[in-house]
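sorry to bug you again but im stuck and you know this stuff better than me. below you get a single protein, a line of residues and a line of whole numbers that encode the local backbone shape. mainly i need to know what kind of three dimensional shape the backbone takes. anything you notice is useful, everything is just below:

***
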Amino acid sequence: MKLSFMTFACEKWSLEQVIAGAVRHGYHGIEFRTDAQHAHGVEATATPAARREAKARLSDAGISACCIATSLQFATDKSLEEAPARIDLARDLGSPGLRVFCGPLPAGVTGKAAHELVAGRLRKAAERAAAAGVELWLETHDSFSKAADVAATVLLAGHSSVGINYDNMHPYRNGETLDETLKALGDLVRHTHFHDAVGKPEVVLIKPLNHGDLPMDAMFRALGSKGFDGYLSGEWFGTQYGQDSDSSLAAFAYDMRALAERNGRRLG
């Protein structure tokens, strides 16, 4: 397994600063948050020249653009209009996939109907993604916070370019046990957001490792037992992990390496 972070950790940093921070603290990848006006400029509106420069800078530093974290919500028709530009961005940066959401469901749409609605749109967008050599990773988040809902949707989509972005916080805080989550996830996990948090349904609050309620060691071992070898990507906001961007990146990297080592693994 490898280590990455989402750019909410350093949203005011330029692309050069983000890459330098990743190198400085021993990260293997960067998850670029798009659609959020971060200073790095990795956006669907970026020019071809800017994309080539970003890809070259990443390559020179030995850092992967491991995920493009979008705001796409496949419960809405708008997702099919917005997906192509973001798929092309991932392709141009050499990123293997895009993080996408379900988003708020239409009134009265629940259960299997909700799964079918989102799965149908994912299936359509996946054709474009596959042609570009990238994937769509539906996150355990918002309306589909439980792995059972995300997995059901991904399986209904029935496309090899659709997988799961497992955010370990949301299934647990919404009452899905780790065993239930693991059974639902199967072999569909392609990327993760991996962090400690408050384990209550009414609270969405990321915490430093060992300061929240999540069974982090058990979650780490479970991913390893599944043969997952992708990215453990840290996601936090503001001062949730440190007083500034640099100290938070240093602290998360240190904590994650310690977590891996005490469970008999090395990251990288």
